[in-house]
Specification:
Layout: H1 10-43, H2 45-81, H3 85-120, H4 125-140, H5 142-157, H6 162-185, H7 189-217, H8 230-262, H9 266-302, H10 307-333, H11 335-340, H12 348-361, H13 365-380, H14 384-409, H15 411-434
């Protein structure tokens, strides 16, 4: 069901729109959590370390998928808010065609370069083979990853956050069952984890595209709809490319940090692999809520109602803080239980390093939540230079402090780098939001 985000009380509109988005990303993250859970529980700590090590590289591909999602979503939101339906359909087909070309390039790059990248980040010999196997299978599933993310962006642009939720709830649950089947019953080990994700994500992608086609055919338009537009591609790229760069910078930073962590051995790698999955569950969820704020902002600016954006900012902060509170409490009080969830018999070092990460990072989720809401508004308003500045500051500081503090405090120093980057970049994001040129006094 399509939804107009320019009408109704902003707080109510955002809650009704963003809560299904939050549920969707929880199920989306279950793909990665299921991989780590099955690898750690049914194969062993080494397999968990291999999947976790590969995960940092997969985030580069996810960065491109995210950029395609948000670029398409913001432009389609603006056109939908302005009721320019013919141009909106052209923007959608343009995004799909561009994504197909991008996907081909990414697959070729991945096939050629992933082994070299694993070597570059000092992947231990004990997990190198499984890491490479997992990545090779993952690369063949890139078309599903990209097209599913574009489809999700289209749903969000049309104000529909429920349909992706239902797709993901079904496919993520299936992924867990197929993971266990392939690994425990068919003894496929790490390859079984990767193929399960491939199959279940493929189902989500195909179903989503089918529903999008039906949904668009029900929207009346006058005149012939063009399949491709250079002008709309440029507008989409102005949003998509900085978003891709943002996520790529973060991924490259994470890979650099992973390289530092790899120097501490498989125990710390396994503990970090479990903890970072739990951390990314939160950060990706908050980022997705920020994307919802981008759609809200774009629709209202497209309809020329900028006054609703300020109210939306306040409502979104309240929403993300309410969602953060139980997560922070759980990560602080039950961190050992969560880390053990990924490993049958964790070593003392794996358990210690994972729990310390959660204790240090979790309290700062309230801070990063503010940044991600402000970033969502900056993206929706097309203020990408400001958005990129705040993001790049976070990345540079996180990598720099990880390097410096690890020399003093070992891997615990690396964990402390997260809050430093988050706090400073949040101040920048809020500053840029408050100085936005379109805001009314």
């Amino acid at each position: 069901m399509n939804r107009d985000l320019t009408k109704g009380k902003p707080e109510t509109v955002l809650w009704q729109f963003c809560i299904p988005l939050f549920g969707s990303i929880i199920f989306q993250q279950l793909y990665n959590i299921a991989d780590s859970f099955v690898a750690g529980k049914y194969i062993g700590e080494t397999a968990l370390a291999a999947v976790g090590n590969s995960y940092e590289i997969t985030l580069i591909f996810i960065a491109f998928a995210f950029g395609c999602n948000i670029g398409c979503s913001v432009i389609v939101s603006r056109l939908f808010g302005a009721k320019q339906y013919r141009e909106m359909k052209t923007a959608i087909s343009t995004s799909l065609i561009a994504s197909a070309i991008l996907c081909l390039l990414l697959m070729l790059t991945g096939i050629v370069g992933c082994s070299r990248l694993l070597t570059l980040i000092h992947t231990p010999d004990t997990i190198f083979g499984d890491s490479r196997l997992y990545l090779n299978i993952y690369i063949f599933g890139l078309p599903f990853l990209l097209f599913y993310n574009v489809a999700t962006g289209i749903f969000s642009a049309l104000g529909d956050s429920r349909t992706p939720f239902f797709f993901l709830a079904f496919s993520s649950t299936s992924n867990i069952l197929v993971d266990i089947l392939f690994v425990s019953a068919l003894h496929m080990e790490v390859s079984g984890v990767a193929w399960a994700t491939f199959l279940c994500q493929g189902v989500s992608c195909i179903l989503s595209l089918f529903v999008i086609k039906k949904r668009l055919s029900a929207i009346p338009t006058e005149g012939k709809v063009s399949l491709f537009s250079i002008d709309l591609l440029k507008k989409t790229a102005l949003i998509a490319v900085p978003s891709i760069l943002q996520q790529t910078y973060i991924s490259v930073g994470n890979i650099m940090i992973q390289s530092m962590i790899n120097g501490f051995g498989p125990g710390v790698i396994a503990g970090y692999s479990a903890a970072i999955k739990l951390n990314n569950l939160v950060i990706t969820s908050l980022t997705t809520l920020g994307n919802g704020v981008s759609n809200y902002t774009a629709q209202n600016l497209g309809a020329n109602i900028p006054s609703r954006v300020k109210a939306g900012f306040r409502a979104a902060i309240k929403l993300v803080w309410i969602l953060c509170l139980p997560i922070v409490l759980l990560y602080l009080l039950a961190n050992s239980l969560f880390i053990r969830f990924f490993m049958e018999k964790p070593s003392e070092l794996a358990l210690l390093s994972g729990t310390q990460f959660l204790k240090i990072v979790a309290p700062f989720y309230f801070i990063i939540a503010i940044k991600l809401v402000a970033d969502g508004i900056l993206r929706g308003a097309g203020l990408m230079k400001q958005f990129m500045t705040a993001t790049f500051t976070d990345l540079v500081l996180r990598v720099l402090f990880a390097f410096l503090l690890s020399r003093q405090w070992g891997y615990v120093g690396i964990w402390c780098a997260w809050p430093v980057g988050w706090c400073i970049s949040t101040l920048l994001s809020v500053f840029f939001y408050r100085k936005a040129p379109w805001k009314q006094p």
